[in-house]
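worker-3 :: picked DUF6924 domain-containing protein
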Amino acid sequence: MRPEDLAGLDRSGDLSYAFVADAQTMVDSTFVVLSLGAENGRWFRCTAAAVYAIETNLSVANMDFFEFADSAGEDGVFRGWE
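worker-3 :: tokens ->
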């Protein structure tokens, strides 16, 4: 199942994003970060080390999804800011 397919599933609650482990996660330890809110269906990958920073900032509305997605590298993986 693709991330876009997950975004279209029926769900309850106020979820605005999700972290998803898939087959690629098992190979390179990157997670799918999927928007379920304003940018429903948009996604990027992040390193395991970046999960905490993304979740913390999104959960307190300190940053928006697009700020992380737009900061992903050319390979589509967000690794944090240096």
